[in-house]
Amino acid sequence: MDTTSKPVISACANMMKCGQRQMRYKLKKKFFNNILANDVVVKSPVPSMNDDQWEALVKLWSSPQHKVDEC
C-alpha cells in the first residue's frame, strides 16, 4: 500500500475526522448536555485536551448556531 497516494491520505484523513467528531459528541453528551450553564466544567475533564481547547468547545456548544431545541 502506497501511504503517500491521494486516496490513502484522503481515507486516513476521513477516519481521523470521524473519530474527532465522535469524541466531541461523547464529550458534549457527558459534560455539557442537560447541565446548567453555571455547572458546566470549566477545566478540561479529559487528559488529552488542554483547558484552552475545552473552553473553545464549550464556547462553540454555547453559541446559538449549535444549540438544538429539545422537545
Automatic annotation (TrEMBL):
Highest taxon of the lineage: Eukaryota
Name the record gives this protein: Uncharacterized protein
